[in-house]
Amino acid sequence: MNIEDVKSLISLIDESTLTELHYQTGDFQLLLSKNKLVQTNQQSSDNIQAEVPSPAVIAPVQNIKEAVSEAAVAKEGKIITSPIVGVVYLAPTPDAKPYAIKGQSIAKGDVVCLVEAMKLMNEIKSEFDGEIVEVLVENEQIVEYNQPLFRIV
């Protein structure tokens, strides 16, 4: 399991109603949790209180495995990332059609969006040939360095 897989699992748990995810394969184990479940009592370190979520909140292991495999399938493909921090523009002007949309075929070198940084518009070009399967940002959204913009297969 690589760092991208771990990021995918973190994203999956953030977007779901799950509060905890325990993933194990071979000798690798990963435990992700949204909430702090254990609180210590200040009077004594032997006194530990645990807040346990109701059984309805914790999904069965089989459902978690299905969700993980669905996330892996959904996350296949190549990613176009932002090379700089700035504001992303999906079209050249507000009333123009977008450079790239979901389902569109693109070639290596095609402009997919603009990122404005320090009053300069920087064309972001595709590094891959393929079809856009996911637009990961919204128009005029602030993006970070190396933030995913588009997923291509």
Automatic annotation (TrEMBL):
PROSITE patterns: BIOTIN, BIOTINYL_LIPOYL. Pathway: Lipid metabolism; fatty acid biosynthesis. GO terms for molecular function: acetyl-CoA carboxylase activity. One of its GO terms (cellular component) is acetyl-CoA carboxylase complex. CDD domains: biotinyl_domain. It comes from the Bacteria. Keywords: Biotin, Fatty acid biosynthesis, Fatty acid metabolism, Lipid biosynthesis, Lipid metabolism. One of its GO terms (biological process) is fatty acid biosynthetic process. The keyword Lipid metabolism applies. Residues 77-153 form the Lipoyl-binding domain. PANTHER family: OXALOACETATE DECARBOXYLASE ALPHA CHAIN. This protein is a component of the acetyl coenzyme A carboxylase complex; first, biotin carboxylase catalyzes the carboxylation of the carrier protein and then the transcarboxylase transfers the carboxyl group to form malonyl-CoA. This is Biotin carboxyl carrier protein of acetyl-CoA carboxylase. It comes from Trichococcus shcherbakoviae. The lineage of its organism: Bacteria, Bacillati, Bacillota, Bacilli, Lactobacillales.
